[in-house]
Amino acid sequence: MDLPLVISADQLATELNNPNLLIIDLSSPENYQAGHIPGAISVAPSVLLRGTGDVPNKIPQASQLTQLFSSVGLSNTTHVIVYDDQMGPLAGRMIWTLHCTGHFNCSFLDGQLNSWKAAKLPLETQTNTPQPTDFQASINPDYLADVDYIKDHLYQTDHIVLDVRSEPEYRGEKIINAKKGGHIPGAVNYEWTRALVSGDDLKLRPADEIRAELAALGVTADKTLITHCQTHRRSGLSYLFTKHLGFEKVRCYDGSWFEWGNLEDTPVE
Length: 269
Fold this sequence. Notes:
By secondary structure, this protein is an alpha/beta fold. It has 2 domains: 6-140, 3-Layer(aba) Sandwich (Oxidized Rhodanese, domain 1), CATH 3.40.250.10; 144-260, 3-Layer(aba) Sandwich (Oxidized Rhodanese, domain 1), CATH 3.40.250. It is 29% helix and 12% strand. It has helices spanning 9-14, 29-34, 62-71, 89-100, 112-118, 147-152, 167-171, 207-216, 234-244, 256-260; strands at residues 6-7, 21-25, 41-42, 79-83, 106-109, 159-163, 188-189, 224-228, 250-252. The strands form 2 sheets. The chain has a 5-stranded parallel sheet. The chain has a 4-stranded parallel sheet with strand order 7-6-8-9, with helices on one face. Helix 4 (89-100) links the parallel strand 4 and strand 5 (106-109). Helix 4 packs across helix 9 (234-244). It is globular, with a radius of gyration of 18 Å. The model has no long low-confidence stretch (mean pLDDT 98).
């Protein structure tokens, strides 16, 4: 199956009966039960978080990912389709998590379930149960940035930090669950929903438009991009759309501002 990273509802509809397809719905249980894409399984977004330690929003341990992906039936031949009910960031974080484990056969449903409904494609309400597999996960650190990595590359011109929080958070006017506000020195701000057509039309805007806006901020594909938000939820979407634009060197700071803003020795602008 050769499917793009970002897939339309119509493209997905043509593959719906493919036995190697695994559709993951990251919506709330209530929304899943109200109607989902035929064959989709329900997965709680909380499994994308480590859930323990001082920074519980970091990527799960490899053992946790082994358990997760085995339980949903992932194999090397599986192509994963993912969507959520949060405008796309959770689906983007799932794509990033899969990439971290070396599984690149995955696609993000453009426009989420809204686009499927708009195309008048069928829904079902039954609960689907996956057939477990034995998937062994390992994590490639090239897809992550931690505090030390960021400090080591703060002022290097071949790296840039993309902060996709709101402008008040970026400027330090709004502080959420942190001891200090502001942003990582040198970081540029691109509020995550700017990549979407609108709050009602959740499809990604044309790639050339997003690429031009990022380039105006100095975010170009020749650099290593480090993206983050408050807890690496919103930056799940920025990982997704920069990979969609062809950026090859994208790292996610999964500790995000929840970690950086609570450490005593992290510099802030």
